[in-house]
Amino acid sequence: MTINKNQITAVILAGGKGSRLGGQDKGLVDYQNKPLIEHVLEKIEPQVGQIIINANRNQDEYAKFKHPVISDELSDFQGPLAGFLTGMKTCNTDYILTLPCDGPDLPDDLVSRLISEVQNNNIVVAHDGKRLQPVHALIPTSLIESLEDFLANGDRKIDLWYAQHSMATADFSDKPEVFFNVNTEEQRQQHQQQQQGKPQNG
Ligand SMILES: Nc1nc2c(ncn2[C@@H]2O[C@H](COP(=O)(O)OP(=O)(O)OP(=O)(O)O)[C@@H](O)[C@H]2O)c(=O)[nH]1
Ligand SMILES: [Mg+2]
């Protein structure tokens, strides 16, 4: 079974509290001279049909990126799964691709590798060789009721919801660094310096 990029809406999860970064709205935090989310948008725009920005604060700022900005229906920061549900309810494609707003180094074959593992309505999640990257996932929109029930039941753990469904992983063990994400000020600064020190064609 194959799917194409036009069947996918990327849902960029920018709805968190950013508590480890002093409560900042992480998607808007500067990283190498532009907001973090702009790095994500640049990497993902060529790979999907549509994009939704899922944000619970500063919606006007996010609207400047020219994609629909949608807040969680579930209030009080219920976690990434609340954002998954928001995306599934809002999109009009067969799949959503979930992505965190704080991971600026996405590879250009993210979607093609995930697509290559699609089979029979399964969920496909990126794996970096050591662990699952659960918020980098390709999810059939048909699972919307399942997720609604799961959240209504008070559950919030992504892995528990995945375990209720058929799931495959896409292998990125050759480049685990693409999943780097900015959770603390130290990470933001350290990584910025490393990137600046890299040779241009390396
Ligand atoms: N829609 C939505 N997304 C969320 C929520 N909580 C976290 N996320 C997103 O999930 C992704 C991974 O979460 P973290 O890296 O822990 O981000 P965070 O929750 O803002 O940061 P901390 O508060 O420091 O843990 C990020 O892209 C967040 O924006 C939420 O309640 N709703
Ligand atoms: Mg993070």
UniProtKB/TrEMBL annotation:
Q: Which EC numbers characterise this protein's activity in its record?
A: 2.7.7.77
Q: Which InterPro entries match?
A: MobA-like_NTP_Trfase, Molybde_CF_guanTrfase, Nucleotide-diphossugar_trans
For the ligand (GTP), the binding residues are: 13-15, 26, 54, 72, 102
What's any GO biological process attached to this entry?
bis(molybdopterin guanine dinucleotide)molybdenum biosynthetic process
Q: Where in the cell is it found?
A: Cytoplasm
Q: Catalyses which reaction?
A: Mo-molybdopterin + GTP + H(+) = Mo-molybdopterin guanine dinucleotide + diphosphate
Single GO molecular function: metal ion binding
Top-rank lineage group of the source organism: Bacteria
Similarity annotation = Belongs to the MobA family.
Q: What is this protein called?
A: Molybdenum cofactor guanylyltransferase
Q: Which gene encodes it?
A: mobA
